[in-house]
Amino acid sequence: MDSQNLLKLAEQYGAPLYVYDAEKISAQYKRLTKAFKGVGSLRLNYAAKALSNINILRFMNHLGSGLDTVSIQEVKLGLMAGFKPESIIYTPNGVSLEEIEEAAALGVQVNIDNLSILEQFGSKHPDIPVCIRINPHVMAGGNSKISVGHIDSKFGISIHQIPHLLRIVELTKMNINGIHMHTGSDILDIDVFLYASEILFETAKNFKNLEFIDFGSGFKVPYKEGDIQTNIEELGKKLTVRFNEFCAEYGKELTLAFEPGKFLVSEAGYFLAKVNVVKQTTSTVFASVDSGFNHLIRPMLYGSGHEIINISNPKGKERYYSVVGYICETDTFGSNRRINEISEGDVLCFKNAGAYCFTMSSNYNSRYRPAEVLWYKGKAHLIRERETFDDILRNQVDAKDLFETPKAESIK
C-alpha cells in the first residue's frame, strides 16, 4: 500500500475512506503463529471488536483463525462469516443470563466473568462446558481506559474469589474446560505478562478437565518509526517453554489460546481524509479535514497518536500543522505535527487505522460513516458502501402527524 495507490483509491471511492491491506493482516497472523511454533496446540481467536466487517471476518477464517466475540451480534456475524461454532469464544461483560444462554444455544464456547452469572448458568446448564475469566490483578496497558486486569476493574473474577468460585463449581457440578485472562491493551513489559501468566497457571491447577488456557492479548504495535512494541518473538520463546512445562505438570496437552485484535489489523488500516481548509491563527496552522471524531475517535478518546502523512505532496517542505476535524467540539487528530506542506484539497493519510477505528465510528452531527475498501492481491474491493441520507433516516419513525397545527375555531 504505497501513497500512489492510496491516492488512487481516494479518487475512485471518495474521502473519507478506510482502506485495509490483507497482505499485512496475513503477515501479522503468520508472525504470531511462528512465534509460538513450539506449542503443540495453538489457537488464535481474532478479536472481532477491533474490525468487524464481515469480509474481514471471512478473511480471518480463511487464514485459519478462530474468533473472539463480546456480543451476541458478533457471534452471529462470525457464524455468517463461516466460522464453526466451536471455533468461536464468547466473552461478554455485564450481559444478561438470557444473552449468554442464546450464545450457548448456538454452540459457541461461553466465557463467564462474574460469580452471579456463573452460579445461575451452572445451576441451569451444568452439562455445557464453560470457560472462566480470571482477573489476575495485574496492571497492564498503555492507557487506564484500556487496562482491564487491575484490582478495580469490572472485568473477570478476582483471584481472591477463587474459593467462592470453586464452591459454585462443586455444587453445580458444572464443567470448566478453560481458564482465561486479559490484562489490557498495549502490553509494554513482557515480564509483567509472564507474571500474570503464572497466576493463571496456578489457578488452572484447581480444575481437572481443562482443554485450553486463554491468555487474552493486548500486544502493542508501533504507531510511528522507532516506537516501542511488544516483542512477540521473545514472548513466544519464554511463554512456550513455561506453557509446555505446565502441560507436563498437568498431565495433559492443553491448547494455548490468544485473542489478538489490534496486533492483526491495526497496521493494515489507513484512513484517508481530504483537507477542506488551511487556517492560520496567531499561533497555529490548522489543517481542517472532511472528517472528525465521528469517524476516528481514538485520538480524542484515548490520546492515541496516529501518524499523519500528506500523500498528495509527499516531497513537499515540512511544516507544523494541527490536524483537526469538522465536528462542533474540540476535535483534534494531532497537534503541531511535522507534515509535508498541506494545501486545500490534499489527501491526508492516517496510519494504524485498522483497529477500533471504523468500529467506533458514529453518525454524530448527522454525518455519514465512510466506505471501507479491502486491498487484496493487488486489487481494491469495496466491502462497505458510504452511507447516504437514507441511512440516517432508516430507523427513524416520522411522527409529523403529532405536530400538525390545530385549525383555528371559526368566530361566531
TrEMBL record:
Pathway, per record: Amino-acid biosynthesis; L-lysine biosynthesis via DAP pathway; L-lysine from DL-2,6-diaminopimelate: step 1/1
Binding site for substrate: 298, 302, 329, 356
First and last residue of the signal peptide: none
Keywords: Amino-acid biosynthesis, Decarboxylase, Lyase, Lysine biosynthesis, Pyridoxal phosphate
Record-listed N6-(pyridoxal phosphate)lysine modification sites: 49
GO BP: any one term: lysine biosynthetic process via diaminopimelate
UniProt binding sites for pyridoxal 5'-phosphate: 218, 356
Keyword Amino-acid biosynthesis: yes
Entry's EC annotation: 4.1.1.20
Domain (Orn/DAP/Arg decarboxylase 2 N-terminal): residue spans on this chain: 24-266
Any one GO molecular function term: pyridoxal phosphate binding
UniProt cross-references to HAMAP family, sorted A to Z: LysA
Name of this protein: Diaminopimelate decarboxylase
Species of provenance: Flagellimonas nanhaiensis
